[in-house]
Prior knowledge:
Elements: E1 4-8, H1 13-24, E2 28-35, H2 51-64, E3 68-72, H3 74-90, H4 97-106, H5 109-116, E4 121-123, E5 129-131, E6 134-136, E7 160-161, H6 169-178, H7 199-207, E8 213-217, E9 222-226, E10 248-253, E11 258-262, E12 268-275, E13 288-292, E14 300-308, E15 313-323, E16 330-335, E17 338-344
Parallel strand pairs: 1-2, 1-4, 2-3, 4-7, 8-11
Antiparallel strand pairs: 5-6, 8-9, 10-11, 12-15, 13-14, 13-16, 14-15, 16-17
Helix pairs in contact: 1-6, 3-4
Amino acid sequence: xxxxxxxxxxxxxxxxxxxxxxxxxxxxxxxxxxxxxxxxxxxxxxxxxxxxxxxxxxxxxxxxxxxxxxxxxxxxxxxxxxxxxxxxxxxxxxxxxxxxxxxxxxxxxxxxxxxxxxxxxxxxxxxxxxxxxxxxxxxxxxxxxxxxxxxxxxxxxxxxxxxxxxxxxxxxxxxxxxxxxxxxxxxxxxxxxxxxxxxxxxxxxxxxxxxxxxxxxxxxxxxxxxxxxxxxxxxxxxxxxxxxxxxxxxxxxxxxxxxxxxxxxxxxxxxxxxxxxxxxxxxxxxxxxxxxxxxxxxxxxxxxxxxxxxxxxxxxxxxxxxxxxxxxxxxxxxxxxxxxxxxxxxxxxxxx
Length: 352
């Protein structure tokens, strides 16, 4: 009897190809589509609340002759993703909801529901590798998504398969086209699903209360007015024109409803503090590593100079100063290709 596995399908080419490959390998495959929004939900900016994606996912399951389920995660998504997303911006932080979606929903809550249905394994179209309980970068380093998976509890990986781990993106497209999968022409997802159509500025305007505040220079002088600090992230250089020269957001003071602007050089830091949960760390103090400060960041050399699991805090010293470590984003630590730790970047003051 073949082993039962559910593939989380989005209607896109990656998860669609993963579904096809696992069926070809002899697994007893079920396609599962996650519903996150209701039509009319003001939190959803997506076209018809993802109905087109759901339709494509259903067509794919029909084409491959596998069972298809639509899993309602609307209330859980609102509680565990949308709520914190708003609260982070209200605190002047820059969240990464894609990381939360993996650790709080897809590889935890969804896996538990599937297990209750008698389906013990789950697969997705992520580009990453699993070896034992370890998480590693994918073969295609340009598409690697291990950054977004670092927060998934390690004990979960024994029941997870990433069929695309050793493939390059072009190979995935070739397979989808060759096998005429109905997702082969689907557009690749590029952004947070909360923001699908109108972007972050429109979402914040519609969902978060904002009021004008002061723009300060690095000496504390008032140089202008902003429409709401929630519209800004560290390193941003738009939204406060007319100041005579190119300036960047170098700090956000949510409690005072103000932002501080300065030179690009003011953005660079020699170290960063991050949260540190012991179950996510196999790295040790003093270890030389690489770190990614955002998903598109080129891994930079660093060393762990402090690691205190009692306070759940870690200090990372960079080999070279790094631009705009942004509180709320995640710093993910690598030893070669293996993910050996990570946590949210903390706002610890203005030390450089």
